[in-house]
Design goal:
Layout lengths: L5 E6 L7 H14 L4 E5 L6 H4 L10 H6 L9 E2 L5 E3 L6 H13 L3 H8 L7 E5 L6 H9 L2 E6 L3 H4 L2 H11 L8 E6 L7 H14 L13 H7 L4 H4 L4 H19 L1
Parallel strand pairs: 1-5, 1-6, 2-4, 2-5, 6-7
Antiparallel strand pairs: 3-4
Helix pairs in contact: 1-12, 5-6
Bound molecules: adenosine-5'-triphosphate and magnesium ion (MG).
Adenosine-5'-triphosphate binds next to helix 1 and helix 10.
Length: 258
């Protein structure tokens, strides 16, 4: 693993599967394990900050910094929950398009920025991304040491596995420092036979690359978001808090192995 930090890209072809929620809750669980964490939002929705109590009126962010050719660390927000947050920032549409054109011309931009950001050894950087293929996905996967793909336990998610495997082939697998790609199922409802069947099919298809932790459906997740809190702060005994803790332990084991 590189000295800069371990960079984990959280991605999915489908929208609304839980990427932002996973990044926020994993950031909290890792922070609770005394791990230094940088949560980085590479999605123009700029929603990760809402989980980590950044004031809504605060417009700073990495895209804004980039367009002003200023250093990214000036956009950082220290969350009251203890992790560092690099939000995307609030941009006018014209500026967003200009930022995306710049990313398109320079696919290694994020990778270079992460090498330059001052960071404690052992930090885990979690990157949230928008759904589907985009300049953001390319930047995140080219910067990643490890990729975490989020799936729902439904047929539509199952068929997206092939497109994620193509992304990994394009952006990750040829890099010697790339440590691996894993899938996690979110919003699992074991009471539904279809969810159980799809989960079984995913386990057969992906083997060890499907994380042993399945993130269960839990209404506390949305409630926590409404309170601008990671779920383990809002509802410490909830299923979602237990699952985030288990996923953090699994991730730390992968980082040690790599
Ligand atoms: N385990 C869960 N149990 C219940 N609800 C969940 C769970 N995980 C996520 N959600 C809810 O699902 C919705 C989508 O989650 P989220 O915004 O994290 O998805 P996303 O993949 O980041 O979406 P986008 O593709 O738009 O960025 C939210 O309302 C969130 O509260
Ligand atoms: Mg999101």
């Amino acid at each position: 693993m590189t000295a800069r930090s371990t960079v984990v890209a959280v991605v999915s072809p489908k929208g609304g599967v839980g990427k932002t929620t996973v990044v926020a809750n994993l950031a909290m669980a890792l922070t609770d394990r005394r791990q230094s964490v940088l949560a980085l939002d590479l999605d123009p929705q700029n929603a990760l900050r809402l989980h980590l109590k950044m004031p809504v009126a605060d417009s700073r962010g990495l895209a804004v910094q980039c367009l002003q050719q200023a250093s990214l660390d000036h956009a950082e927000f220290l969350s009251p929950y203890g992790m560092r947050l690099l939000p995307y920032g609030s941009l006018a549409e014209d500026d967003r398009r200009e930022f995306e054109r710049m990313l398109d011309r320079d696919p290694q931009w994020l990778r270079r920025q992460l090498d330059a950001v001052p960071i404690a050894p052992g930090t885990i950087t979690l990157i949230d991304t928008p759904p589907g293929g985009s300049v953001y996905l390319q930047q995140a996967l080219l910067a990643a040491d490890l990729a975490l793909m989020v799936l729902l336990p439904d047929a539509a998610s199952f068929v997206t596995i092939a497109s994620m495997e193509r992304w990994l082939a394009d952006y990750c697998r040829s890099r010697s420092e790339f440590a691996g790609s894993y899938y996690v199922v979110n919003r699992m409802n074991a009471a539904r036979p279809l969810c159980r069947d799809v989960l079984g099919a995913m386990q057969r298809e992906l083997g060890y690359r499907l994380t042993p932790t399945v993130l269960r459906f839990d209404a506390m997740v949305e409630e926590a978001m409404a309170s601008q809190a990671p779920v383990s702060r809002y509802a410490p005994d909830s299923l979602a808090a237990q699952d985030a803790a288990a996923l953090a332990d699994w991730l730390l084991a992968q980082v040690e192995i790599a």
